[in-house]
Write a structure and sequence with these properties.
It is built from 2 helices and 8 strands, in the order αββββββαββ. It is an alpha+beta fold and about 160 residues long. The chain is globular.
Length: about 160
């Protein structure tokens, strides 16, 4: 009987520790997800101060580069050289960024007949597209803490 009580006591202790460990893991994951971070994006090599610089932040790979489907969007006055914008209070995760220089301020990235941009543009990780738009993953930034990145504009 005594050994049965000891065995039962051991099993209850083990189950309690195992359950506590799972709860602790879930709490830590929730805390990381609940934390908010800032992403500072600096665009360099801006050729002039005409128009606006648009910062498009994407979180969903399915809609990457699609106008009107950004996670967040910001437009700031262009300055020759560089401009920065801070996306504040972002959840931990993967993000990709597209920027363009909207010199004529029509709020679209103008393109030619072949759908090639006629206004300066750039992607996070300084990815330079070859014949098509780069993938979300190629441009992805893993945000787990406050971060600053630099993107060079392509003219």
């Amino acid at each position: 009987m005594k050994s049965m009580i000891l065995l039962l006591s051991f099993l209850l202790s083990w189950f309690s520790l195992e359950n506590h460990s799972k709860k602790t893991t879930r709490v830590k994951q929730h805390q990381l997800q609940a934390q908010k971070f800032d992403l500072r994006v600096t665009v360099t090599a801006i050729s002039n101060a005409k128009g606006l610089i648009e910062f498009a932040l994407y979180k969903n790979p399915e809609v990457f580069t699609q106008a009107g489907k950004t996670h967040r969007l910001a437009r700031v006055n262009a300055q020759k050289g560089e401009v920065s914008f801070v996306f504040a209070d972002l959840e931990a995760g993967k993000y990709s960024i597209v920027v363009y220089h909207d010199e004529n301020q029509n709020k679209i990235c103008d393109k030619n007949f072949f759908a090639i941009p006629t206004e300066a543009y750039a992607f996070s990780n300084n990815v330079r597209p070859k014949l098509t738009v780069p993938s979300f993953d190629d441009c992805a930034i893993n945000l787990q803490q406050n971060k600053s990145i630099s993107i060079k504009m392509v003219y």
